[in-house]
């Protein structure tokens, strides 16, 4: 079992634990704000299941029907997770509006807040594990799951402080008002998750900093060539695809051109982990004089 799959399984188990704790906290208090927190955790569990399926599919080797691999399954997972986050937010808004029309005092509030605080601490620890592990393993599904948990942690802290304020002041309307604020925060989180994933599905180029590094590597390692042009990049899950045209002189043999390509590929693999490099070699008259200059 790969590290990515292990983290995805861990997310599912942690999600079930946190959901149980938050549901218990709501049952103990009757707080709509805590109910909204528990509803968001329901989405966490479903999202963890989707992420687990996605990372397993993404790990399937390339085949005849998918010659570039199955890496984009993780982006699809992240988009689906964003949609579920938005649905959860709408459900929370509904509960908040009903409770706002008929606010009620809380039952055993302090005990419930302690249980909810424990669930929030567990979520916070696992959020850090997911974000650090997902970035290290270049897994969009795990990073999306981690960002969602981060939003959950922030909203849970806000809910805890707000419910505490409602208890101390006796302003029962604070409880549904907090639930509404949680819903807005969840909506924003869902939008960010979906927008980041759509960029991957649309074959967005690498970030400017990484792209500059790629150009630098090609310029440095293409000694013996004339220039490189038509550089294109895209990312699919943890894999980065890089392709460009390399212009060589007419006196360059096939073997020599192949050696130059091998040298460039090795340097790009070192600079951009999990990269797939394709180089199209062209004769000198194909030079465009506006590409990457060879040092």
TrEMBL record:
Tell me the ranges covered by the Cation efflux protein cytoplasmic domain, including all copies.
Answer: 206-284
User: Locate the Cation efflux protein transmembrane domain: which residues?
Assistant: 11-202
One GO biological process this protein is involved in is: intracellular zinc ion homeostasis
- Is Transcription included in the keywords of this UniProt record? no
Task: Keywords in alphabetical order, please.
Answer: Cell membrane, Membrane, Transmembrane, Transmembrane helix, Transport
Its principal location?
Answer: membrane
Q: Where in or outside the cell?
A: Cell membrane
Residue ranges spanning the membrane: these are: 7-29, 41-61, 73-93, 113-131, 151-171
- Topology in the membrane? Multi-pass membrane protein
Gene Ontology CC entries for this record: plasma membrane
Kindly give the PANTHER family that the UniProt entry links to this protein. Answer: MITOCHONDRIAL METAL TRANSPORTER 1-RELATED
For this chain, the family text in UniProt reads: Belongs to the cation diffusion facilitator (CDF) transporter (TC 2.A.4) family.
Name of the protein described by the UniProt record: Protein p34
